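INFO worker-7 received task bundle
INFO bundle size: 2
INFO processing item 0
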Amino acid sequence: EFLDFFLVTAYVPNSGRGLVRLDYRKTWDVDFRAYLSELDIQKPLVLCGDLNVAHQEIDLKNPKGNKKNAGFTPEEREGFSQLLTAGFIDSFRELYPEQTNAYTFWTYM
């Protein structure tokens, strides 16, 4: 915590090979968003870390081949969309909405 803002770093749970932890991840997303929203009421916050999700097709090299892989499932992408709906900003996409070949996600599988 800083005087004028919160700095939150996170390593968000990976849904795992075969999506064995997808249900856990979905619960995590809801709870984490609630936590961030509570902090954001108090003062601005910056979230950084490994969110283990590629939100849009532009955010990874092979979107078609990864649709059912951890990090790019519809559920995980929706969880990230809900962060944006809650008022948080994807700073990279805010500044570079159409930038291609600038990946912050690469599947380990």
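INFO item 0 finished
INFO processing item 1
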Amino acid sequence: MWNNISGSIPREIGSITPLKLLLLNGNKLTGPLPEELGYLPNLNRLQIDENQISGPLPTSFANLTSMKHFSHMNNNSISGQIPPELSKLPNLLHLLIDNNNLSGNLPPEFSELPNLRILQLDNNNFNGTTIPASYSNMSKLLKLSLRNCSLQGPIPDLSRIS
């Protein structure tokens, strides 16, 4: 963390199956996130904020069933739509992907994340999309932050969030 490591994240990291934490914050990493990261069965925390990561989030991340913290993925250039497959992560507590170039719709499937506490997607480009009404089913959600995302439409009834 907080070094001057440069280049891309090597695909070979995906073969370190005992890996539980991958903390690469504050470096000069570039390029896309390797698909192989999605095949780390024990990975429960990924932090890559303050880099120059680009490209979409790999759909293989749906395989990370031990993942609790997709936190600190902010301040990169991650683009494209958030894969709805991420809703298949039963242990996910935190999803923070703010200050990137994400676009498309907010996945309504996120309401299927049984343990999600924090959803923070500030400063992305969800141009014209609305907040899904299904988000009212996120009973354990403590923080929903969608600032500066070009959202439109009404705020759904979120009164079921405890």
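INFO item 1 finished
INFO post-check item 1: The domain at 6-145 is CATH 3.80.10.10 (Leucine-rich repeat, LRR (right-handed beta-alpha superhelix)).
INFO post-check item 1: The chain has a mean pLDDT of 95.
INFO worker-7 idle
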